[in-house]
Every structure is written in structure tokens, then in C-alpha cells.
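OP here, attaching both records as promised.
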Amino acid sequence: MPEEKRAVLVIAPNNFRDEELFYTKEELEKAGVKTTIASLSTEEANGMLGGKAKPQITLEEVKEEEFDAIVFIGGSGASIYFENKKAWELAREFSSKGKVTAAICIAPSILANAGLLKGKKVTVFSSEAFDLKQKGAIFTGVAVEVDGNIVTAEGPGSAREFGKRIAEVLKAG
């Protein structure tokens, strides 16, 4: 029996985008991927649309060897991770080990700031496209983009597709 794949979903303590967390999580779990939610604390987090999520672990407790994928969830609150050294370190660790490193909405900026998107085909919420291009990313503007182990999506409308594509990349790996 194949080993169960595990993904950690990183959300902001406030203003994560509800669909991006809940739909992505649902699609991953439908595909048999076990999910864990992480944030800056394990206090209940608040979505932009009123949804609530209880992180099981903190960002500091995320250990790359325990997961097959890291997924940064968007929403305006995700900007809290743009300059977060621990978020960058985790993104680099997962990526360097060939693990799925994913981000949706504005969260691909976390990956760009960590230096992971140079020469990669990516998509992102329109407000961040210029910034990603400045950091060497190849912005495609499609709903969901996969380039190797990097999976990016442009926003809430693509959350289900984002979850499905992450699961596909995990299964293929």
C-alpha cells in the first residue's frame, strides 16, 4: 500500500482567504492527502469571509521531514509572511528536497521573496504579478500553474483546481 502523503497548509492568523483554505484542504483530503494546518500560533484563525480554522501546529513546529508538501494559503493576511524568515526557510527546505512547494493568491510572493521563483512559470493574484516578474518569475496568468515541484494559483476561484493539481503532483512524485 502506498504511503499516505501529508501536506501542511500555512495560514495567516487573520484574514486568510476562506475558499483557498477550505476548498484546497477538501480537494487534498478527497485525494487521500492528510492535511495539517499551521500558523504563527495555534489560536483560532479568522478568514476574510468569517470562516474559522484551528491550526494544529505553529510555523516554528513545521518539520520538512514530516510532510510531502507545504502550501501557503492567500488572503490579505498572507502578507504577514512576505518577510518572514521562517516561512522562507521552510519554502526553501521543501523545494530543495524536491517536495511540493505551493502558494495561492498573493502567497506566491512568499516563494518569490525566498528566491524560489526565478525562471519558474508561475501565476499569482494580479496585484503581485509585477513583483514576481521583478524577481525573475515567468508570469503566465493562468488559473493554476505547475512548474516542477512549484504549484501556484491566482486566487479563490481556482482553489479547488489548486488542491487537485497539488494532489496530482504529490501522486506523481
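Record two, same layout:
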Amino acid sequence: MAAVCLTGYVRTFAVPGVHRSIEAVRHSLRAPLFAVVSNDDGDTFKGQSQIVNNTALEAARAHVRIEDWRVVSGADQFVKLAYCATIVEAHERRHQIIFEWVVRLRPDGLYRPVPPGWLETLNDTTVYQSSNSGDVMWVMPRHTLATMAAIAGTPMATSPEGDNCCGDLPHRYFECACEIVRTRTAAVAIAHLGLVPTSNLGNRRDNPTKKQWVDALSTERQAHQPGTGKGVTAANLHRLSSAPFARAYTLLNRKPWAAG
């Protein structure tokens, strides 16, 4: 039995391909979905420079079976995860159940359904994270949820690959049938500036070994190159290759590339 925590900025949640794919994951898991999201103008670089229209959000929410929807301002993903953990715990007490797994999704992600029986193949002492961009999808044993939320942005959170993830908890990656759907604002910013100001990951503009290659790309190519955490825009979903989905949910020991 699993629960879904949908945490992050709503950004492109109103895009039909996004919210319908989130519902597809939830349905495939037969799981209740608890959303802790932000909808404000504090996320300019990642693409949300203004509040997403509430009418559009309500229309999108109508297509997703949501157990609980909370809106908070400015909180990072770990704070939102901690908030979701309290909601999950309250749900368990109220319904006298115990979840075995918690699947954390982003509101701006494009997902394929989880195959039947996939969770049963996982180790309940290990945290799993998506390989193409580490925070798009996490699969956590229920007993690790509070720890994952508590490590927050501390040095404990950083995995050997550079992700903010699991700290000392054992973790593995999986080939994720998922992608980030960026706003056009985010796509342009990422194309010109790189994803985040860090030099230890392979697809960043400020990595000297990659900069010459990246500079040679057109802005459009940089902005919409899938499979690297840079994501695609809603207008270009039809151009998204099926290749990232070909080996969906295949377990890996390490990331096949550094995408952050």
C-alpha cells in the first residue's frame, strides 16, 4: 500500500499532459494523493514568476483524485515533504492503516504509470530516486519519510552524486518514465544560464568541460533537450522522444548521467 506526496511549485500543473500523467501514476499505484504546493511569484528562475490562475488550477485538479490539497508559500521541497508527512500520518491514524511506501512526485512532472508489481520488487530499507533528474520522483519506504524530510538542506542530504536526497540512508536510482515540463520562462533562463550555479554536475553551463559544447547549441536546442533535467516546455511535449520511457522503472546502481 502506497501514498503519493505531490510537493513543489504548481508551475505547469495546469497543463493537461502534466496533471493527467500525475493521475495516471496515482491510479496505477491505487494510492491516495496528498498535495503540498506553492503558488506565488517566488520561483522566477524555475519558471513561476507569477501566481498560476486559480481557475486553471481548479480545472486541472478536477482530473486528479486528490485526498488533500494544501497551499504554502515559499517552502522548499523538504519543508513541503515534512508537511506531507504529517498529513500522511494523520490519514493513517484516521483510517487505521499503515502505508508501506510513499512516492513523491513534482507538480510539474510528466510521468508514465508505474507497472503492476513494481513496488514489490524494491527493498524496504532503500530509498529510490529517479535517474534523469533526482528530485522528479522519489520512492521511499514509509519508515524513511520523516528522516527524508528532516535532513532538509543539511550536508547530510547530499548523496555521492551531488543530489539533495537521502543522506546516510541507503539509496539507489531507477530509470524513470518521467520528465520535467518547464514554463517557457524557465526554458529560456536555463538555456542561457544553466540549470543551477554548480560545477560538479555534467550538464551545467559552468562546467568548463561542457561549456564549449553547450555554447554551440541553439537556444531552442538547449531549452528543450529532454532527459537531462532541463525538461521540455508544454508547447514542445509532442517533440518529446519516447526514448526516456523505453526502460521505464528499471533499477540502476548509479545515475547513467549527472542531471541533478
